[in-house]
Amino acid sequence: xxxxxxxxxxxxxxxxxxxxxxxxxxxxxxxxxxxxxxxxxxxxxxxxxxxxxxxxxxxxxxxxxxxxxxxxxxxxxxxxxxxxxxxxxxxxxxxxxxxxxxxxxxxxxxxxxxxxxxxxxxxxxxxxxxxxxxxxxxxxxxxxxxxxxxxxxxxxxxxxxxxxxxxxxxxxxxxxxxxxxxxxxxxxxxxxxxxxxxxxxxxxxxxxxxxxxxxxxxxxxxxxxxxxxxxxxxxxxxxxxxxxxxxxxxxxxxxxxxxxxxxxxxxxxxxxxxxxxxxxxxxxxxxxxxxxxxxxxxxx
Length: 300
Known about the structure:
The chain is of the alpha/beta class. The protein has a domain at 105-299: Rossmann fold (3-Layer(aba) Sandwich). The chain has helices at residues 2-42, 48-53, 57-87, 92-104, 129-141, 158-164, 166-171, 184-188, 196-213, 232-246, 279-290, 296-299; strands at 108-114, 146-152, 177-181, 218-222, 250-251. The chain is globular. This is SGNH hydrolase-type esterase domain-containing protein.
């Protein structure tokens, strides 16, 4: 009896195992057939709607957008640090406009308002310092940040400039920065000679008109070129310097960079037999002016 029961249990167990294997084998075949049918219907390719139906699609686009924004932010941060280094120690007004325009990839309109000393006045093939200045500043800042407009009125005296209204024309250029020459050299060589009191008065008129046209303009005053072994000319230049200080007008004293007017070495910066700068003189002049727009320590 026990043998019969034992044999029956074995038979039932084997039957269950065989039945189970047949069931799961058929199930797998059905799943495989169904999968082949789906692939056949789609031609083996994903439709455009598959990406749309992907719940992660929007997340991927958002991630890419966030990545671009982060990259742009990093670029702005690096640019800001560079501008901070290059403008460290500059006048607050100059530093502010350089950083503002630099971050916006906008141009700073810089007008040079002066006499023939600011150009190749003797047609010697020199590169005038205003042109050198634009090239140098943009090279240092790594972008076309400065647009220099050279307004050189040859040998006109300050009286003639006022009478012709050229100062108004310059004001209407709506510059961000103006470097205004005091016209002492032209006034001292005019016919008639312009008294230094009139030079100062005309200079004040020019500054006023520039400010009236654009209250945000940054105005610098500078002397013309130095001249070897002159007597009255340097005293007139000093009078303008004092006027600028008394009226809180920024004064660029580039004479500090030249040899003294009593030093024969000054002749090495002038065209032979002339009192107009040669290429070496223009280079020196440019470098000094550039120091008002570039942190000298950083530049070096």
